[in-house]
Amino acid sequence: xxxxxxxxxxxxxxxxxxxxxxxxxxxxxxxxxxxxxxxxxxxxxxxxxxxxxxxxxxxxxxxxxxxxxxxxxxxxxxxxxxxxxxxxxxxxxxxxxxxxxxxxxxxxxxxxxx
Amino acid sequence: xxxxxxxxxxxxxxxxxxxxxxxxxxxxxxxxxxxxxxxxxxxxxxxxxxxxxxxxxxxxxxxxxxxxxxxxxxxxxxxxxxxxxxxxxxxxxxxxxxxxxxxxxxxxxxxxxx
Lengths: 114, 114
Known about the structure:
Chain A has 114 residues and is mainly beta. Chain A has strands at residues 4-6, 11-14, 19-25, 33-38, 44-50, 55-57, 60-65, 70-75, 84-93, 100-104, 108-113. Chain B has no helices and 11 strands.
């Protein structure tokens, strides 16, 4: 089983639509969760962190369900500029090092059309 | 401008010809990391460094070397490249190895090994 699993998509939606992405992770000890955005052939960039109580940033809402080991990202009122790949990212820990490693999902591709 | 730079951005080489991809950050970050990104596999960590002269293997270190002689630089060395190292490579840095710290990525290096 992959450490972080995402539906690869693509999700094709019209402008103005609401779209939701889901992600599951296997390490129940994970403490930190993020969504990164990656445009075609570009580097990933942090979109938002995901907090236990859920959090919102403008049109973006992130939710965490620790019991089900499940993370979601909701995008409201989709814009053309939202077209990108969204990466679910979970921390992992290296034994005896205190080092926290980030594990990336393979990403979900979103295409917003006019 | 705070940034992570990589060079070269594109490289086509032949099997066995040693090459180095440079990475430099101007944010005084302690933590740096190298990833490769392949279709369907997502970002996988090659090596990471928690500070000067401190490096360790990530998930896919075979065929790669790194060094961290200065805080700002973290070069990736392929002593004898092979075709299976054809990939998109990203360098990243963050202010700490803590799981809540945002990683900043370089623009990527697209490597083709013939």
